Amino acid sequence: MNYIIDGRTMKAADHYTVETIGIPSLVLMERAALQVVETVKKEKIDITRSLIVCGSGNNGGDGIAVGRLLLEKGAQVTVVLAGNPDHCTEETKEQIRIFQAIGGTVEREIPQESYTAVFDALFGIGLSRKVEGRYAGILERMNEMEAAKVAVDIPSGIDSSTGEVLGTAFQADLTVTFAYLKTGMALFPGALYAGNVQVRDIGIYLRGGVEGPRYLSYEREDIKTLCPKRGADAHKGTYGRVLMITGSEGMAGAAILSASAAYRMGSGLVRILTPRCNQAVLQAKLPEVIVTPYKEEISRQMETLLDWADVICAGCGLGMDERTKEVLETLLIYLENHEKPCVLDADALNNIAGMEQKKREMLLSGAGSRLIFTPHVKEFARLLGKTTEETKKSRMGLAQQYAKTYNIILAAKDARTVVAGKGKIPYLNLSGNSAMAKAGSGDVLAGMITGCLALGMERFEAAAFGVFVHGLCGDEARDRYGAHSVLATDLIEMIPIVLREIH
């Protein structure tokens, strides 16, 4: 389990480390340079002829220290100070002095030569303005070079908070970043420019009152500690009675996918409430489930089934008809007075978004503390009453605000899904890939999160873990079937492979 932070938080942590802990900035700079050189060596990058382009800030000082270490290893090193020498930090000036003292020279322009490796130490994490003019030309020239490209801490031109390209940016093959992954390299398009990101510890302290945006992320080894173990004396009731209100006429597949995923994640017993037309295909495809068709008296039937259930999932392929609206309203009113966790996905969210505002506010205020929402960007935009473009641009902050307002756990799905909850450090997911961009993938995720709830996990932990494992299943499926050929059912088949690591 790690933190992902933005540039502002990193600067605060760096300041705390230097000013409060008392570790000199030059010491941190030396550690950073050592980590870059060691990582480059591990990645087998040819440093025979290395170009290092530096700015006047401390990122430039890191680069110059890298140049000195490479020179000591016998490499032919060209250091270019692209920034204004008069604006160099004291640490960068000292690195220049040391580099020149051992025989290195500092150029002001990039020589017309060929290189085996190009190192970017131009701007660092503090950049907030668009790269233009001479600096844009320098980055473009570096990108055109036929050489391995290494970014020091972050590719120059990438916003360290949002991942936005500020005009133009360095296209790295390898980025060696220090202490923590930066959000700008986790989010797209910054992740595309960062290439292979390696996080290296240089002794930066994040605690001690350092405040600022930060996110949790999981690593594969965390599965063993995050997922509950099954007791030797367990029975099917131990791991939850799940009610899935899913499927509509012609949409039995959504019910199959979500229910299968819930079972694969460990649920003990799954019942599907669905139209009678789906009953035969569901019982043939999933003999493990109980299939219950809708009755005429839906409210009374719903109350009986909700009393039976420990965990509820609603929305996958549910449709937008009047019966669906009645079912959802009945569900939300029930949850006001019953402590049962509930995952709402797809059409459940679309129906909620379509409610009259006063009714929606009332229902969510009463049931919010039981709910997990799993919207993709368009569904989230409908809930917010915003455009898709507005929502996508500010998705991280909007997710946190929405979750706080209604005490809902919100898994805002995208290439980098964020899970937010009131009083929680948000979780930013790094697993998964574009092969998962297929119909039914969201139904599988809803079922997986529901399965996590059935295992006894709290709402936030269930949502974050479900998203993480869902992505890992996508990675496994891509490796097995290729980037174009993964189906939603393949994700379900990968669940046992991923969860096997628990044992």
Structure characterization notes:
- By secondary structure, the chain is α/β, with parallel strands linked by helices.
- 44% of the residues lie in helices and 16% in strands.
- The chain is built from 20 helices and 19 strands.
- The protein has helices spanning 7-21, 25-42, 58-72, 90-101, 133-144, 183-186, 190-194, 223-226, 252-264, 279-285, 298-308, 322-335, 347-353, 357-367, 377-384, 388-393, 395-406, 441-454, 459-481, 488-499, and strands at 2-5, 49-54, 76-81, 106-107, 117-121, 148-152, 174-178, 181-182, 196-200, 214-217, 241-245, 269-274, 290-293, 311-314, 342-344, 371-373, 409-412, 418-420, 427-428.
- Strands 13-12-11-14-15-16-17-18-19 form a nine-stranded mixed beta sheet, sandwiched between helices. Strands 4-3-2-5-6-7-9 form a seven-stranded parallel beta sheet.
- A hairpin with a 6-residue loop joins strand 18 (418-420) and strand 19 (427-428).
- Helix 9 runs parallel beside helix 20 and helix 18 crosses helix 19 (459-481).
- The radius of gyration is 26 Å and the shape is elongated.
- It starts with a strand and ends with a helix.
